[in-house]
Specification:
The chain contains 14 helices and 11 strands. Helix content is 40%, strand content 16%.
């Protein structure tokens, strides 16, 4: 990996092209007070949250993978701004970079990793590897728990410190242009200035409850479906109570014969006057199933996923499923996609030119097709618009001849 200093001339030339002017926040320096030059640790343990939430909770796994893979499936678009407007570019080095960010990582896997880290940690990082000419040649997603932010004097990061075991790598930020080979994306956090807050933290209580119910049901199943209880012993009036050794032997006999799924349904024979007293409430009394579904709904709501799509039981008619998919895209995936595109336009696009803008193909999203068809039909029936105005409204270029005439949809249907 090349050293960052090799690309300092290119970063300086980039800031000069932008007519760079040094501006600082009046309170930015206060954010770094007492923290200047020292790495900041993330507020919560990412590895524990990821293990308990993502690896051990099926609802979280479903929500994260559903959002990340859906967002990664949307194709990138690139536009170039000219005097007569913006024009779409079908081939460009920037599109090639996003399609194949690195030799061993495809574009969809790259975006899925970025979004997955963002949802689980509230932070995600992208490292850009530059060629000798100073253009990004490869992009790599970085694990958020291995990154430490080093605050600078102006309230912006001075550097990013990446550590694996005892090995550390410092990735500096240019103090003049504020450019860096690392892009930091974070979600809103009301209590931290440097790190974002993940939906996993907001849903941590529901996740613990969901995991506790699942663990209880598993333990109950492994115990042969029997709840906990006590064995009441009534010795004869002329007999002495059981000794400690006899009680321990009785416990061991019960454990060997009575516990475990392999012993379910077996008959145990004991000598004496015994009575089984149930000590805990039954799963029906505690209503574990409904409590588990309630916590699953809360987890899905924290991630912005309709519970139906996360596998929570409920009304699953075709109409509701279609509306649930539309809700997922409009309220969760598309805003997240807009956030990602805007950050890439600020960090990545300027390296390839000032007049370039990244976008995405919204027409390729199947969940939005009903709404798109309604808009098209509305435009088709608008007979006060010309042919070219209709074509422009749906994303097509003007016709060279006859495009400036009004179309009468009832007498002469128009096919765009």
């Amino acid at each position: 990996m090349a050293e960052w200093r090799k690309y300092l001339p290119n970063l300086w030339s980039l800031s000069s092209k932008r007519n760079f002017q040094k501006k600082e926040s009046q309170i930015g320096s206060l954010l770094a007070c007492g923290l200047l030059g020292n790495p900041l640790w993330t507020p919560r343990r990412y590895d524990k949250l990821a293990e308990e939430g993502f690896q051990k909770n099926v609802v979280v796994y479903r929500c994260v993978t559903l959002i990340a893979r859906s967002l990664a499936s949307v194709p990138w678009l690139l536009y170039e701004r000219k005097k007569d407007g913006e024009h779409e570019l079908e081939k460009h080095p920037l599109l090639s970079l996003l399609t194949t960010p690195s030799p061993k990582l495809a574009g969809t896997a790259f975006i899925e990793a970025l979004v997955g880290y963002l949802l689980l940690a509230g932070n995600t990082y992208v490292e850009g590897v530059f060629n000798p000419q100073g253009f990004p040649q490869e992009l790599y997603p970085l694990r958020p728990d291995r990154i430490r932010i080093i605050p600078g004097a102006n309230g912006l990061p001075e550097a990013f410190e990446y550590s694996v075991g005892n090995y550390k790598k410092r990735l500096p930020v240019d103090p003049l242009s504020e450019q860096s080979s690392v892009l930091h994306l974070k979600l809103f956090n009301p209590l931290h200035d440097w790190y974002g807050m993940s939906p996993l933290e907001a849903a941590s209580g529901a996740i613990d409850q969901h995991n506790a119910v699942a663990g209880h049901n598993l333990a109950l199943l492994q115990n042969g479906g029997r709840p906990s209880g006590a064995l009441m012993i009534r010795p004869h009036p002329h007999q002495s109570p059981l000794t400690q050794e006899q009680r321990q032997n009785l416990r061991q006999d019960l454990r060997e014969v009575y516990e475990g799924t392999r012993n379910a349904g077996r008959i145990i024979m004991l000598e004496g006057d015994f009575e089984w007293k149930e000590m805990g409430l039954s799963p029906k009394d505690l209503d574990f199933i409904e409590g588990k579904n309630l916590s699953a709904r809360e987890i899905a709501q924290a991630f912005g996923v309709p519970p139906m799509l996360a596998g929570v039981p409920g009304d699953a008619t075709f109409a509701n499923y279609r509306e649930a998919r539309l809700h997922l895209w409009e309220d969760t995936i598309i805003p997240l996609l807009e956030f990602l595109v805007a950050e890439f336009n600020l960090w990545l696009s300027p390296y390839f030119g000032e007049n370039l803008r990244l976008g995405y193909d919204i027409d390729s999203i199947p969940a939005l097709s009903p709404k798109r068809e309604a808009v098209w039909n509305k435009i088709m029936k608008a007979d006060f618009l010309t042919v070219n105005e209709k074509r422009q409204a749906v994303g097509y270029g003007p016709l060279p001849e006859g495009g400036d005439q009004l179309s009468r949809t009832f007498n002469n249907p128009l096919t765009i």
